[in-house]
Amino acid sequence: MQPISQRAMTPDIIEKIDEAGIIAVLVIDELKHALPLANALLAGGINTVELTLRTDAALDAAKIIKKELPQINLGFGTVLTVDQVKAVVDLGADFAVAPGCNPKVIAEAIKQGLSFAPGIMTPSDIELAVEQGCRILKYFPAETSGGMEHLENMVAPYGYLDLKFIPLGGCNMENAASYLKSPLITAIGGSWIAKRQLIQSEKWDIITANAKEIRDLIINLRSK
Q: Considering the domain 11-215, what is its CATH architecture?
């Protein structure tokens, strides 16, 4: 059987996410932090972010980043509704992800031309996502679900589909390599790089150092 076509994510976004290897997961509470945060990540080599829709400032912060730093691959997380899909499309989102697998949200993303990765944790989630045309899937929550061992066993029956995954939830510098070594992984999601507290306390130097550390690991692993 031939792999089913990918409808939920464009080839250019797939390539950008794969090249990045890491997606910085961000929670921004104040607009004044948007640009310093994005610049701190860029200084450390990270150009791909997931801005979670969990705060009132999220959409306005995205507008600032999109306008001032177009080199950022701007994604949105916690996209749970059709209206949120429309909102991030209007802002020029490059991609979006969700913690779960909602067929209505996936369908709207495809309709709007928004590259989208739904969240999966079970074989049923995978089959639902595949039926909707998704081939890049968010593996969430990764660590408490069983990490790479769980993912490898769960995905075995679907090997012919060439699925790729973005694990998020419990990923950190200590376990990043265990994910990044696998051909199943296109990129990992990292909330540790710019924790909410680091952003709020404006620790831009620490964020840059965290970004550089994970990017150096990715470069080293992929050069072997």
A: Alpha-Beta Barrel (3.20)
**pLDDT on residue 3:** 52
Verify cis geometry, omega within 30 degrees of 0, for the bond prior to 141.
yes
Cα pseudo-dihedral 47, 130, 147, 207, rounded to 10: 10
Task: Express each pLDDT in 63-96 by its tens digit.
Answer: 999 999 999 999 999 999 999 999 999 999 999 9
Residue-level pLDDT at 4: 58
Give the contacts of 166 (CB within 8 A, at least 6 positions apart): 17, 23, 97, 117, 136, 137, 138, 139, 185, 186, 187, 188, 189
Nearest-Å Rg of the Cα atoms of the chain is 16
Q: Quick check: 121 and 149 in contact, CB under 8 A?
A: no
How far is the C-alpha of 149 from the C-alpha of 134, rounded, in Å?
Answer: 22
Over the chain, what is the mean pLDDT? 96
pTM above 0.70, yes or no: yes
- pLDDT tens per residue across span 124-151: 999 999 999 999 999 999 999 999 999 9
The answer to whether 141 touches 133, Cβ cutoff 8 Å, is no
Domain boundaries of the chain, sorted by first residue? 11-215
Tokens of 171: 């990923």
pLDDT band at 1 (very low <50, low <70, confident <90, very high): very low
Active site residues: 50, 138
Tokens found for residue 188:
């990992």
